[in-house]
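As promised in the previous annual report, we have extended the structural survey to additional targets. Below is the entry for Acyltransferase.
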Amino acid sequence: MKTILAAYPGVLKGTGSSILSALQDLSVAFWPCRYKMEKHLQVISVLQWVISFLAMGAACTVLLIYMFCTDCWLISAIYTAWLIVDWNTPKRGGRRSSWVRNWTVWTYFRDYFPIRLIKTHNLLPSRNYIFGYHPHGIFCFGAFCNFGTEATGFTKKFPGIKPSLATLAGNFRMPVLRDYLMSGGICPVNKNSIDYLLSCNGTGNAVVIVVGGASESLQCAPGLNTVTLKNRKGFVRLALQRGSDLVPVYSFGENDAYKQVIFEEGTYWRTIQKRLQKIIGFAPCLFHGCGLFFGNSWGIVPYGNPITTLESQSQCQKLRIQLRRWWTCTTQCTSGPCRTFLTGTRPALA
Ligand SMILES: CCCCCCCC/C=C\CCCCCCCC(=O)SCCNC(=O)CCNC(=O)[C@H](O)C(C)(C)COP(=O)(O)OP(=O)(O)OC[C@H]1O[C@@H](n2cnc3c(N)ncnc32)[C@H](O)[C@@H]1OP(=O)(O)O
Ligand SMILES: CCCCCCCC/C=C\CCCCCCCC(=O)OC[C@@H](CO)OC(=O)CCCCCCC/C=C\CCCCCCCC
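The corresponding structure token record, generated without further manual editing, is:
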């Protein structure tokens, strides 16, 4: 504000200088309050989301069951009936709400880090896409903000493309959370849900898969860019089977949101973490961010480090040519890794 006011001193010379100094005093008086208010709103926006991520599913489930034991049992009964009727909606394209995706709270969420989405190539609404997103980080802030909301302007940058961020199917068994997730266009990450979007939902679909998944979140720490990709071929197989294009997406800074105690492979705690992850689906990461009131204290508020998400060129054109050669060679060989590939249906290579 001061810079703008100072930019016009020539215009307000003489009698105007007292007005200018009064305006500058006024702006100084209000400016820190406005700036602080913005920062507080940003922290609250991120904190409410992290608490929702961690506790909304469990909390709503407990509340629904508890309400059955109160005078409000009818509300629980009606919602439960709705849940049964609506059970498969998440796997059938969900229920996206542009109103929820455009909530102002997501702009404060974006500005906290800040999160930026950089477009490098156009995408065609006549095609379907699988975005391979990396890295997971702890809570996939970049994936959620860019593809679960309109805060970074996805629809403006990619007109005609509908992003569907894929997350663990277990989330869609949680009352209220399932509806909240679907409003952001978020869908289950299982095969039949992705298949539906790529083959029964028209074109212009972009299914965003955080390829490394929960196991990749166990590898994240500030400054590290470890991705879990080696044995992950399912998303490629799906793209080939459905004739969709693959788009690599990388979020620089995603791993800088929290600090994590990373246990060495083979140690007792690492084994416990991986076993738990297999059982419960999500990764029991030992992480911390900063506190709510004191900057140097520990808490679940992420560190405000920039997250820059880069959407790269659709790789399918190159991939198609390579795979055409690979497919030709595999159909002539009957042993080795090719057999694995041969068991899949023939990719729809154009
Ligand atoms: C405006 C709305 C506001 C709402 C706000 C609400 C509050 C916030 C609350 C809530 C969170 C919001 C959401 C944030 C974002 C979260 C992001 C995630 O959830 S990342 C986890 C999902 N990504 C994966 O699991 C990747 C791996 N999965 C896949 O690629 C696909 O599932 C698929 C079908 C392509 C897998 O194909 P294949 O079965 O051939 O598997 P192959 O590519 O060989 O990879 C094997 C790995 O994939 C896992 N996998 C396979 N199917 C899976 C499935 N259905 N679910 C989970 N993992 C699966 C396996 O466990 C294995 O992982 P192993 O190596 O053991 O750690
Ligand atoms: C101020 C209030 C804060 C509320 C804190 C409640 C604590 C709840 C503890 C554990 C529940 C965590 C539920 C996580 C739900 C995950 C939903 C999801 O979709 O995750 C996606 C998944 C794959 O992408 O993401 C991850 O796996 C990344 C890690 C998620 C962070 C989980 C951190 C849990 C930390 C410790 C858990 C301790 C072990 C819990 C055992 C539970 C036994 C049933």
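Residues 34-349 form one domain. The CA atoms of residues 40 and 108 lie 9 Å apart. These points will be discussed at the next consortium meeting with the crystallography subgroup.
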